[in-house]
From TrEMBL:
Keyword annotations of the record: DNA-binding, Phosphoprotein, Transcription, Transcription regulation
InterPro entries in the record: CheY-like_superfamily (IPR011006), NreC/VraR/RcsB-like_REC (IPR058245), Sig_transdc_resp-reg_C-effctor (IPR016032), Sig_transdc_resp-reg_receiver (IPR001789), Tscrpt_reg_LuxR_C (IPR000792), WalR-like (IPR039420)
GO molecular function annotations of the record: DNA binding
Keyword Transcription regulation belongs to the record: yes
Name by which UniProt lists this protein: DNA-binding NarL/FixJ family response regulator
Chain positions with 4-aspartylphosphate modification: D55
KW DNA-binding (keyword) present: yes
Annotated organism of origin: Aeromicrobium panaciterrae
Domain HTH luxR-type: 150-215
Length: 217
C-alpha cells in the first residue's frame, strides 16, 4: 500500500514542487492539496489521508492550530511540519502540539521521500542536537509543576519501557535502540507504541520532554 499524502501550503509553487517530487515515488500518492490549515482539516475529515505535509505560516488557520485539530481526530494522520528555519519557535510549538517531525523546505527531494517513509514507520525525524534544542526551548518556558505530572507518567512505564523512553529522549533511532538494548526492532516499536499510549503523547519529542521533566535525561 502507498502512503496517501496531503500537501498543505499557501504557496502554489511549493505545492507544485512537492507534488512533483513525491509523484516520482512508487510508495507515495499525493491525494490532495490545501491552501490553509482549515482546508486541510476538512480534507482529512473526509478520509483517505495517511500523512499531511503542513506549512506553519498560513492564513485563516496556521499549521500549529491545524496540527492540533488533526491530531484530535479519531483516525489522525501523521503530520510533518514544513519550515524555512531550523528549530524556530513555530517548529517548537508545532512539535509540542504533536507533529511527528519537521522538514526544511530546501530538503533534497530524496530525503523528503525518505523522511515520509520514516515517519510512517515511527522513526525519529529529529537529530539529537535538534531534539535537545527543542526540549530546552519548551522546558525553559514551562512551569515547574510539569515535573510532578511527568514523574507520575514515567512511573507508569515498566523498567524496560523506561529504558526505551530515555533512549528515545536522547535522539536514538529504533535501530540504535535495538542494538543498544539487545532487542529486535519489532520489539522496540512495540515498546514505543506502549510508551506513547501511557505518556499520552503522539511523537518522540513529547517523550523526550516528559523524560526531561521527570529528571531522567
Amino acid at each position: 500500500m502507498t502512503t496517501r499524502v496531503l500537501l498543505t501550503d499557501d504557496d502554489p509553487l511549493v505545492r507544485a514542487g512537492l507534488s512533483l517530487i513525491l509523484g516520482g515515488s512508487p510508495d507515495i500518492t499525493v491525494v490532495g492539496e490545501a491552501v490553509n490549515g482549515a482546508e486541510a482539516v476538512k480534507i482529512v475529515q473526509a478520509g483517505g489521508v495517511d500523512l499531511v505535509l503542513m506549512d506553519i505560516r498560513m492564513p485563516i488557520m496556521d499549521g500549529i492550530a491545524a496540527t492540533a485539530a488533526l491530531l484530535d481526530l479519531p483516525d489522525a494522520p501523521k503530520v510533518i511540519v514544513l519550515t524555512t528555519f531550523d528549530a524556530d519557535e513555530y517548529v517548537v510549538r508545532a512539535l509540542a502540539a504533536g507533529a511527528h517531525g519537521f522538514l526544511l523546505k530546501d530538503t533534497p527531494p530524496a530525503d523528503i521521500v525518505a523522511a515520509i517513509g520514516k515517519v510512517v514507520d515511527g522513526e525519529p525525524m529529529l537529530s539529537p542536537t535538534i531534539t535537545a534544542q527543542l526540549i530546552r526551548q519548551v522546558t525553559e518556558a514551562a512551569p515547574d509543576e510539569r515535573s510532578d505530572e511527568a514523574l507520575v507518567l514515567a512511573d507508569s512505564l515498566t523498567a524496560r519501557e523506561r529504558e526505551v523512553a530515555i533512549a528515545v529522549g536522547q535522539g536514538s533511532s529504533n535501530a540504535e535502540i535495538a542494538a543498544d538494548l539487545h532487542m529486535s526492532i519489532a520489539t522496540v516499536k512495540a515498546h514505543i507504541s506502549h510508551i506513547f499510549t501511557k505518556l499520552d503523547v503522539t511523537n518522540r519529542v513529547q517523550v523526550a520532554i516528559c523524560m526531561h521533566d521527570a529528571g531522567l535525561l
